[in-house]
Write a structure and sequence with these properties.
- By secondary structure, this protein is mainly alpha-helical.
- The protein folds into two domains: about 30-225 and about 335-355, Citrate Synthase, domain 1, CATH 1.10.580; about 230-330, Cytochrome p450-Terp, domain 2 (Orthogonal Bundle).
- It has 16 helices and five strands.
- A hairpin with a 2-residue loop joins strand 3 and strand 4 (about 40).
- The longest helix has 26 residues, at about 125-150.
- The protein is globular and about 70 Å long.
- It starts with a strand and ends in a 10-residue tail after the last strand.
Length: about 375
Amino acid sequence: MSGTEVTTFDGAIDKGLEGVIACSTSVSAIQDTTLSYRGYTIEDLAANATFEETIYLLWNGKLPSQKELTTFTAELSREQALCPEYIAALKVIPAKDVHPMGWMRTAVSLLGHFDPESQDNTPHANKHKALKLTAKMGTLVCALESIRKGEEPIAPKPGKSIAWNFMYMLSGGKEPNSDYVKVFDTCLVLHADHELNCSAFATRVTASSLSDLHSAIVSAIGALKGPLHGGANEQVILMLKKIGSIENAKRFVNDALSAKEKVMGIGHRVYKNGDPRAAILKKYSNQLTQQTGQHYMYEMSVLIDDAMNKEKGLMPNVDFYSATVYYSLGIPTDLFTPIFAVSRIAGWCAHAFEQYANNRIYRPRGKWMGPANQEWLPMEKR
């Protein structure tokens, strides 16, 4: 190449914008050693809130009164069902031998074509669209499982929570275990938002162009699909299955440390003293694996957790113990990431609302690292 090398915009960040403050938000925050939604700690919410209460909190900035919660829960319940025409369209989307998140991305985009408000970007319409999207996300995941097995999707039961209906539909219409429903509901609370993570940022970037809410959520799903974001818990359970035993786990850790290989579900860019969500999920993992006769998977997890903390000072993130929790609940491994979307859509919508309300389109600059003053060469001289 001819020309001279030049650089501009000194101070460019080439490490994933680490530590850069990209926007102001009051949706959620990682503060000290905990995560908070609208100022309420995740420990407090996990112990006391339902997923429906958490959605209301994220969208409205306050906890609902009993009347408000009753109305909001009823609205969500009414919107969980899928219309027959949409189900027929879903069956046309290839469901076998495709990534479930790819299917979900297409299904949510298709949902926009069935929503008469899809291009209405007023606050009222966006709230209504968010309610429909959030209510239907769990139904979509269960529909995928049914369709790819060649079965008819199970319709959600009116008047039941998102967590209850998810466990009901996924099991083929069997009454779910109430304890499992409570655990799953808490998992949805834990995953509902997480400050300016990759998919939340993708939501805000798309919303900042004043594109519609369905497009913003599709952007988020595309970001969540990646193994470095939403796909990590699936990789954790695959890792544990491959290891297979406590004895093998000890050797696995030693080999990983020697080879300086990444252990999925361990470490977090922001939490340096441990992910508070992981601590809550660890207790559920212990309980559920005992109940299902698979406690060795929890024991392997603890061994890896302890060894990585001792040797590298790294602690588990939310994906590490959520893997064994979901596995114990009987959820297919490749649906772990779509389940993440069932919960995180609550946060995505909250971020979209905030972006629309105080908008400026995202337009960062790039630090030029290429040549300058290039001269055009005719074809015969190249």
